[in-house]
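Dear H.,

Thanks for agreeing to be a second pair of eyes. The structure we're designing against is below in token form, covering all 498 positions.
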């Protein structure tokens, strides 16, 4: 009995460790991948019914993979992430496993292949424990548009976890997985990371392959990660990045050892704060941000005010460009080739209409309609071309800013997590929750959100933005901030979820 209690304590201690620390424990055989995987699977079964962060639990697959890895470790074969359990956002195709994208349209789709992100993380030794819930086709900022139900914020079950990667953020925040993948089209990694009190990294566009990642807006979508620390994000990014000949937008830029560069001696930086990022900010969040800035000044960071005037137009431009691309990408779901097919159609036109009407939710339909309208004759020049011009202005302003500063910082979100249903019937208010994040996607820049403080027991995030392929710089600053603070160590009370 005593041995069982001690082992349970060991497992709980493991839950508090970083990925770097976990790899040491697994390599030294202090704990096995099978034991660690079982622990997380049992915890998911116990707590996730209240959170709804997973769509599919891959228990049989995970235990088999963990056992194989334990055998390899016993032979001295250890990969960079051998035995690490990971949750995968249900937007990445996984061979032989249902990939739904949070939609009825793909609720029965079994992928015949792995996305490159899945393949790379598998090759690095990770163990997939499940596919996480998400806003339908990644369209949403609250994880309330999923066909599989709303995801709850572990800090307060009456509040949203953010979106579209809300399931991934919630499960890491709740300690149901040590790390998870996500995707970011307009803030869908950073915003939920901020609202759930964890780290969320969106790399430079093209840094991580999009092959096998179900498309929403192809020129904006980028895969990234959730974890407890900047260090953990650096480790994961190192092993999921790189050129992929199956993705024409994939970059040939060499991949550094992000973990090594993240932990290198910090020498201070010149940090820009756009005045536009502080407008419309909640008073308490503003005070928390001011304290975070003071911490950075203690490590020889020079803080300067800058201006990104066009960033104010970011949401407006995004809400033309993203729906336009979505209307094109989602035209493939017609009830003929794959996806939901209506059982009540008398001709081909009815088949298209009814399959799409039944298969898509309201938010997806709204964006398809907006995008089709913006691309239609007579409106293309008035809306789409103007939005692309604004996008160019935003990119130019960021480039000019990075000629003067090393990094740019600001709050990730205007306020902490909002109540469930609060903005569901007000699309404009929902879209504005991404006001500080969309511009980086339009410019294709890397950015990370890390915990910077608490407002009434709810977390809020600090966003750090870098120039193209400057992930090492922003990870270094994030790591230095976490050495001085303990906000990333704060955890929600799991007694709320039982």
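And this is the sequence the design step returned. I haven't edited it by hand at all.
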């Amino acid at each position: 009995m005593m041995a069982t209690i001690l082992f349970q304590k060991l497992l709980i201690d493991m839950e508090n460790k970083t990925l770097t620390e976990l790899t040491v424990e697994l390599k030294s055989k202090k704990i096995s991948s099978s034991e660690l995987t079982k622990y997380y699977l049992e915890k998911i079964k116990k707590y996730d019914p209240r959170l709804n962060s997973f769509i599919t639990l891959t228990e049989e697959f995970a235990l088999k993979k963990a056992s194989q890895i334990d055998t390899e470790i016993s032979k001295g074969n250890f990969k960079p992430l051998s035995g690490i359990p990971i949750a995968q956002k249900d937007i990445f195709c996984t061979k032989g496993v249902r990939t739904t994208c949070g939609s009825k349209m793909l609720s029965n789709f079994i992928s015949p292949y792995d996305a490159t992100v899945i393949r790379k993380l598998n090759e690095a030794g990770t163990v997939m424990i499940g596919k996480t819930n998400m806003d339908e086709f990644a369209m949403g900022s609250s994880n309330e548009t999923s066909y599989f139900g709303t995801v709850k914020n572990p800090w307060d079950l009456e509040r949203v976890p953010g979106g579209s990667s809300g399931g991934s953020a919630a499960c890491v925040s709740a300690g149901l997985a040590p790390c998870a993948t996500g995707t970011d089209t307009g803030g869908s990694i950073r915003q939920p990371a901020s609202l759930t009190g964890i780290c969320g990294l969106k790399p430079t566009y093209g840094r991580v392959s999009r092959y096998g990642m179900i498309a929403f807006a192809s020129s904006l979508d980028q895969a990234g990660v959730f974890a407890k620390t900047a260090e953990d994000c650096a480790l994961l990014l190192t092993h999921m990045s790189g050129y992929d000949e199956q993705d024409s937008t994939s970059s040939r830029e060499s991949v550094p050892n992000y973990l090594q560069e993240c932990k290198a001696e910090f020498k201070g930086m010149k940090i820009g704060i756009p005045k536009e990022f502080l407008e419309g900010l909640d008073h308490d969040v503003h005070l928390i941000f001011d304290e975070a800035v003071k911490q950075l000044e203690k490590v020889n960071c020079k803080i300067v005010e800058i201006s990104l005037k066009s960033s104010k137009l970011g949401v407006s431009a995004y809400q033309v460009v993203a729906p336009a691309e979505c209307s094109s990408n989602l035209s493939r779901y017609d009830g003929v080739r794959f996806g939901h097919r209506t059982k009540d159609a008398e001709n081909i036109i009815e088949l298209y209409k009814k399959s799409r009407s039944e298969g898509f939710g309201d938010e997806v339909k709204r964006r398809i309609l907006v995008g089709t309208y913006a691309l239609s004759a007579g409106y293309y020049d008035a809306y789409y071309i103007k939005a692309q011009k604004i996008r160019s202005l935003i990119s130019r302003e960021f480039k000019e800013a990075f000629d003067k500063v090393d990094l740019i910082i600001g709050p990730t979100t205007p306020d902490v997590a909002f109540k469930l249903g609060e903005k569901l019937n007000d699309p404009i208010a929902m879209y504005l929750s991404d006001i500080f994040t969309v511009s980086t996607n339009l410019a294709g820049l890397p950015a990370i959100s890390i915990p910077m403080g608490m407002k009434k027991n709810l977390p809020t995030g600090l966003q750090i933005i870098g120039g193209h392929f400057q992930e090492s710089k922003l990870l270094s600053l994030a790591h230095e901030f976490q050495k001085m603070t303990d906000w990333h160590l704060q955890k929600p009370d799991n007694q709320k979820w039982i």
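Two observations from my side: The CA atoms of residues 115 and 212 lie 4 Å apart. The radius of gyration is 22 Å.

Warmly,
E.
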